[in-house]
Amino acid sequence: MAHWWETHPWRMVQTNLREIDMADIDAVVFAQELKEFGATVVNLNAAGIIASYDTKLAYQPRSQYLTGDSLLQVVDACHAQGIRVIARTDFSRIRREVYEQHPDWAARLADGDIVDYNGYVSVCPNSEYQNRYLFDILKELFTSHPFDGLYCNMSSFYLTDYNGTFHGVCQCDVCRGLYKKETGRELPPAVDPRDPALADYIAFLGPPQGKADSVCEGFKLRARHRRRRLYAQRGECGLRPPQLGIQSLLQFSPGRRAAARTAQRRRQRGLYRLPAPSYQ
Length: 280
What we know:
By secondary structure, the protein is α/β, with parallel strands linked by helices. The chain has helices at 4-7, 27-37, 71-80, 96-101, 128-144, 173-183, 197-205, 214-225, 254-268, and strands spanning 12-14, 41-48, 84-90, 93-95, 116-117, 120-122, 149-153, 158-160, 166-169, 231-234.
């Protein structure tokens, strides 16, 4: 059976709502404006560094601006307009107060320091946060909100801050130990995109998809177990093109290319219509 993201072209709006935008958001107006714009999919900030809903998890800070319509009301209003909703998440960083409770979750530089950008601390990709607690967040989010897909922002093994400064890769004891165990070599003190050692590091991430895809792969397995068909994509990995098994925005299957050609012909004939999605 074809998935909804494979059967016809879709126009996605990524809003990147600020925290303060949830203070007075009107779900009905927001969904109506998306509909008038012609959107069929919207990517909404949901979880990770900050929860845009009333989370019960102590290690995921709840936004202090949740005084407008709730995230659930926004999702339901979008569905009422025939618009799919993808949950935008970001597990690349944690707030400073979370780091102070879980210092072992932080990525480390060669000198043992952390990457702290104005209170947002970069996370080690091999930490328990990204390999265990992340899935608890997704479970809470997707059991309380009927999202149609998942987007993981900045899912990368590279350490960069919001200024775009490159800090190499995590040098914590866990990463060093794993690299030594799997390659027999010491982890280079700095892996630069121009460094020949990058090829060894990418090989360390593992074929065919690499450890950087583990979030989406683990999420898909859990979604299948619950019999939900959900779109999943990771973003900005920077190591290789996404190969998620299901198609991402950056990879078009033959079916989607054919659908795009069909849509173009229908549009030229004035017959183009997107089928209304079903949420039964």
